[in-house]
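Lecture notes, structural biology module. Today: joint structure prediction for complexes of two components.
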Amino acid sequence: METLFIQIKTLLVNAAALVLPPWGVTLSSMIISALAILGLGPLIMMYLTLMERKVLARMQNRIGPNRAGPWGLLQPLADGIKMLTKEDIRPSAADPLLYFLAPILIAVPALMVFAVIPFGKGMTAADLNVGVLYFVALSSTTTLVIFMASWGSRNKYSVLGGMRSVSQMISYEVTLVISVVPILMAAGSLSTQTIVESQSGRWYAATPWGLLSCMIFFICGLAECNRSPFDLPEAESEIVAGYHTEYSGMRFALFYMAEFMNVFSICALTVTLFLGGWQGPLLPSWLWFLIKTYLLIFIVFWFRGTLPRLRADHLMGLAWKFLLPLAVMNIPAAAMSHFLSEPFSTAVPLAILMVSVAVLSFFNKGYAAEKRVYHFTD
Amino acid sequence: MKNKTDTPLTEDFDTQTLQINVGPQHPATHGVFRMDLTLDGETVVRLKPVMGYLHRNHEQIAENMTYAASMPYTDRLDYFNSMSNNFGYALAVEKLAGIEVPERADYIRVILAELTRIVNHISVIGFLLNDLGAFFTPLTYAFREREKILDLFEEIAGSRMMCNYFRFGGVKRDLPPGLLERIRTMMDVFPRFLDEFEALLTDNDILCLRCQNVGVLGRELALNAGLSGPMLRASGLGYDIRKVDRYSIYGRFDFKVPVGSKGDVYDRYYVRVLEMRESLKILDQALRQIPSSGDIISRKAAPFLKAPRNFKPPVGEAYGRVESPKGELGFYVVSDGSPQPWRYHVRAPSLINLTVLEDLCIGHKLADAMVILGSIDIVLGEVDH
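The predicted structure, tokenised, for the full assembly:
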């Protein structure tokens, strides 16, 4: 079981070796990995939509999709067919090139980041030695594409959504990158496979600085993929659907697909960087990886079902006034733990972080909730 | 937190304001209400409410029918609280014709009016949270409780929303057997639901951040604009018609009027929560005091149930008002001695409360404008009557 997928791939490559020259075998190995990723992305996305609807439904005292197939298992297929057969509408005022390119350009990077995600032991499609950097670089292109979509569709709601998206993503990207630095310092590598292997003894999330990094990374990741409570760019109750207001049919489906694949890849990367990746006892490594990732995805859906939305200025305040300084302070804390010996290697970073949280909370106390007293009259 | 929303346009940077339309078909507007917004970035600099998409000529229609025939039309004013609307109209016409209401009918009326208040407030809070972006979860739970009360309404009046249950001088028919016990069961469960609801919402940081000091309605403005209901009370004025007029039998109950201090969205939210708790107190007392039998319609008015055209109030005018969940709901009726009112006017609290929308929203973000609109609690049936 452990090497199930690797064996399947070896089998296919060996079969190819019978008929192809050596370069063809290398090429076919690459193509097999690429096809696996290409198939996996949409499959994950389709069933994430179902999972989200089911999870939200249970949280909202409803049943959720249950008509198409048992437990609504065929619902994603039905949705896909509906999306494909819908009329393709393009607003007459839209910029044809930008409007056409945006949905494609948003889906491609979302798929491409799957290449560096270690789904199991030895199961990374491309084990790049700059894996984390590759991930950050690709996910940051989303900002541009979202703005292309919003500008190209010539809709005021879209423009508002696009502006919100750009400001939000740029702010959170800075924090996201800085929050990864302690992990890179500890692992000494940017390769995702190496980072997972370096966690064989202890998960990074089990250290004070690692836990903080993990939380900051996860929060920023949510903001990066526009998930609740940071879903301002597509805030339904304010700006209809934000940057994809004018998109329908398959073009809209591509945006939707990119969003869900981003959710998956952010959760997968959180697992890889902080929660030991595919490490775990008894079960096969890929199963461990999926279990951890889906638990995090459940948390994402949980947020969606329970939290109200932040406002743009609060969102910026959270990023620049709280998360960013905390992420910066986390770097010396992680360094301390690296160079000091026990018990100082835990105590000193913990002290640094607690002081920083206290100081930042003091400076941010304007955001704290007021206690109100209500009077009664007769 | 202070609002740092009024950033001035810089001289050297050429910016334009953006005019957008929110509504009448927009997921955030309640009903077919349209806001013509001018935004500077995300900040609202001008807001023009556009009403009238649901105008149905309510007053003119009422002037061309018998008095009794308008009763079902009042259901459609504020379709969330048909019982309160019936109540107001019945009071006005009873005053005009000098009809007394039997005691049991009075109790039934008060019980239904307070149940309606709970239905309205719980839904408003659910919708408000929806405007805040809490994706339907609070709303579905609020609607679960609302459904329980609507089930009771269905048993009583035969209809869930358009109850059409009140009649001049009483109510349409007696309560079905066992109903008071079912109301009692509902009341035993409801406070627990409300506690749970509050535990999740009232101290939620995001909710506090979004609602506190947003859309502050000053006491002066609230008075000058003629506001009423929870809007006015959240601004610090304990004006409640149930206390001021003590109409029907409200004088017999021991309840208090919650009053806010700031007048922001949070106060409007919390005043409604507290009002629901006070309504439960009234319900509790009413259920204990209600006479177990008796007339449900006054002897004087009973014949007109079958022959509404014979109902000709004496020449004169009357203004009947109730504390509807949204504010002062008044009906002004003038009779010329014919079977039809010569003049019929509705003082719709939603419409009057909505007039301050622009003052509340200017200087706030677009996102706040939606929340402020949600906290005003409008129903377009009433705004555009």
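Point to remember: DSSP finds 15 helices and nine strands in chain B.
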